[in-house]
Amino acid sequence: MTVAGIPLIEVNNLKKYFNVGRGAVLKAVDNVSLHIMEGETLGLVGESGCGKTTMGRTIIRLYEPTSGQVLFEGKNVHKLDGQQLREFNRKAQMIFQDPYASLNPRMTVGDIIGEGIDIHGIYKNKERTDRIYELLGVVGLNKEHANRFPHEFSGGQRQRIGIARALAVEPKFIVCDEPISALDVSIQAQVINLLMELQQKLKLTYLFIAHDLSMVKYVSDRIAVMYLGVVVELATSEDLHNRPLHPYTQALLSAIPVPDPETERKKKRILLEGDVPSPINPPEGCRFAKRCRYAKPVCTEQQPEFKEVEKNHFVACHLY
Amino acid sequence: MERLLEVKDLEVSFRTYAGEIKAVRGVSFHVDRGETVAIVGESGCGKTVTVQTIMRLIPMPPGFIKNGSIIFDGKDIAKLSEKEMEHVRGSEMSMVFQDPMTSLNPTMRVGAQIAESLIKHQKMPPKQARERAIEMLKLVGIPNAEKRVDQYPHEFSGGMRQRAMIAIALACSPKLLIADEPTTALDVTIQAQILDLMRDLQKKLNTSIIIITHNLGVVANLAERVLVMYAGKIIERGSLDEIFYNPRHPYTWGLLMSVPTSELDKSKRLASIDGTPPDLFAPPVGCAFAARCEYAMKICYERYPEDFTVGDGHRVACWLMHPMAPEVKPPVGKGVTLS
Ligand SMILES: Nc1ncnc2c1ncn2[C@@H]1O[C@H](COP(=O)(O)OP(=O)(O)OP(=O)(O)O)[C@@H](O)[C@H]1O
Ligand SMILES: Nc1ncnc2c1ncn2[C@@H]1O[C@H](COP(=O)(O)OP(=O)(O)O)[C@@H](O)[C@H]1O
Ligand code: SF4
Ligand code: SF4
Ligand SMILES: [Mg+2]
Ligand SMILES: [Mg+2]
């Protein structure tokens, strides 16, 4: 457990809104505060469109925030420039969901991995080549693969290439955005094992975005649950699974089918009615109120505050 | 229980420039009335081709059936004319696909798509078919069905589209519903709704279901019987509990161990099946899993292991089941804790 220690990343009241025309505002991330400790894996879960990717992209400065701030090693990420910005761009990397779309089909694997090394001028000539071979080895490929093109590889191998590319610039922090959801079960295990191994070896910090909660539980130290742009619960992996407090987290956990027939037969599911509402002009008060079986009048009037109700266990709900 | 579907020795190939891809290499199984059978296995192992052959939806050419028979509700599928087959597809067996957007018609109102086959195959008057479409939308849990019936697919959310697909598939009360990764594209809370819906409908209508999925949680939730496929063959089959609690094939072990269980923590590695499945242009003569199997013996490379029966309906294609083979303790199953 790495809950103690120093935060590598602090997110304070972060908002990211998109103007979607005709005066409508889509609140993809709406007032989120959290931190990520050095060497920790913070899992981020929630249904599609709830704002996970947007949050990851804003943290590593692929988006400007609408308001609020992100601190990386104590410095405001969106105010960096010059040398400090280059440093940040090297230290914070992202691995993408789709291993097919995220690799340039016209570049060799070696050049894909070498691109970041060139941009940051880390190694040249023979050193550069050696480093590329080394990285291929790290992710379980070999140097013969350097001259091939992405389409010659399977999904799992392409995801390894994406990981090698992220590692090439010696990052400290990696946003893993659904890194395994496009892969087969048996290959998922290979990629996850690799990510875990690298974290140990290189002391990496991860923001791990996924909707497969059993995998998130396995890899994460702490987990944040998002609903319609808001983090509704944040706790250690164990606490979140053993004592989920927010009604949405409870429903989410009960909805996941587990690979155990007896558990499935015994399980009482909390079925949620309806679909996730639109993040365009989201409801006042608690965003979950329409689907919540405990909703009371205050829930539609006032947005519940995100507060620590037990040690290291945060929740935004009027029940607590 | 009464047989609905009997597939025997099915072999399906595709002719390509590079040669013949042997996608399905001798598959036999049955489905009883009202039963749910899951097919699992990694991508490319032949699941979709198997069920598409049953529906006669394989593009021919390049595809062709090399061998085998499919008897559905007493009819030999291969002997039906295209017109008769169209009728079977419209009213006796239907399919739900992974991606509802590619199989719904974007230019046609959802209600009209549900009514279409009722009008065509059951000669229902249009007005009555529309009423039935609304009823079906309600049945699959779409709120405001009276309004929604006149909307187009793009006006539906992902979960609603999937439910609309199920409404279309079930409108004619088919005897067999084939669902190919029906929930893969959905969020877990919506997935739970769809699984519940399928179970409910099955109880009400006694529909048989074949479900194809990568998700072993979905299998545990829905299936009564499981077929495990590898490189175009069924390598293990049995009741749900036999497959999860008493698995006997090394590939099934690998599949079951690569998903994290609730006890497993970060300090332990997940099991993974290293390597890749064989080339289906030239599949090996012996066991197709041998190159990735840590228990492989000499005979495994030389001869295909025919099915060994290890329990009631539990059959395994693996030489480890041979009485002369060395004893191997399953690394997964009931009473086995992962380390
Ligand atoms: N139209 C086609 N032409 C040529 N080969 C095909 C065609 N359709 C399928 N195949 C091949 O047949 C094999 C089995 O394919 P199939 O789609 O059944 O796999 P699957 O188990 O459903 O995999 P997935 O989980 O990825 O959908 C694969 O090797 C595939 O490439
Ligand atoms: N560039 C953009 N312009 C407008 N809307 C966007 C943009 N990027 C994301 N969104 C919207 O923001 C919401 C959150 O998106 P995203 O963070 O990608 O969700 P997730 O990763 O959780 O699936 C979605 O409704 C999405 O459509
Ligand atoms: S604040 Fe109210 S509506 Fe929201 S989750 Fe809590 S009880 Fe439910
Ligand atoms: S037949 Fe041989 S190679 Fe195939 S799974 Fe059994 S032990 Fe392994
Ligand atoms: Mg996303
Ligand atoms: Mg398929």
From TrEMBL, chain A:
Q: Name one GO biological process term.
A: transmembrane transport
Q: Which family does it belong to?
A: Belongs to the ABC transporter superfamily.
Output the PANTHER family linked to this UniProt entry. Answer: D,D-DIPEPTIDE TRANSPORT ATP-BINDING PROTEIN DDPF-RELATED (PTHR43776:SF7), TRANSPORT ATP-BINDING PROTEIN (PTHR43776)
What organism is listed for this UniProt entry?
Answer: Thermosediminibacter litoriperuensis
Pfam families, sorted? ABC_tran, oligo_HPY
Name it. Oligopeptide transport system ATP-binding protein
Keyword Nucleotide-binding (UniProt): yes
- Molecular function, one GO term: ATP binding
Q: Where is the ABC transporter domain?
A: 9-253
User: What keywords does the record list, in alphabetical order?
Assistant: ATP-binding, Nucleotide-binding, Transport
Automatic annotation (TrEMBL), chain B:
- Alphabetical list of SMART domains matching this protein: AAA
UniProt keywords, alphabetically: ATP-binding, Cell membrane, Membrane, Nucleotide-binding, Transport
InterPro entries, alphabetized: AAA+_ATPase, ABC_Ni/Peptide_Import, ABC_transporter-like_ATP-bd, ABC_transporter-like_CS, Oligopep_ABC_C, P-loop_NTPase
The record's subcellular locations are: Cell membrane
A Gene Ontology biological process in which this protein takes part is: peptide transport
Against SUPFAM superfamilies, the record matches this protein to:
P-loop containing nucleoside triphosphate hydrolases
Membrane topology is: Peripheral membrane protein
What's any one GO cellular component for it?
A: plasma membrane
Q: Where is the ABC transporter domain?
A: 7-256
Please give one Gene Ontology molecular function term for this protein.
ATP hydrolysis activity
Q: Which Pfam families match?
A: ABC_tran, oligo_HPY
What coarse category fits the chief subcellular location reported for this protein?
membrane
The UniProt entry's sequence similarity note says: Belongs to the ABC transporter superfamily.
Which PANTHER family does this UniProt record tie to the protein?
A: DIPEPTIDE TRANSPORT ATP-BINDING PROTEIN DPPD, OLIGOPEPTIDE TRANSPORT ATP-BINDING PROTEIN APPD
**Designated name of the protein:** Oligopeptide transport system ATP-binding protein
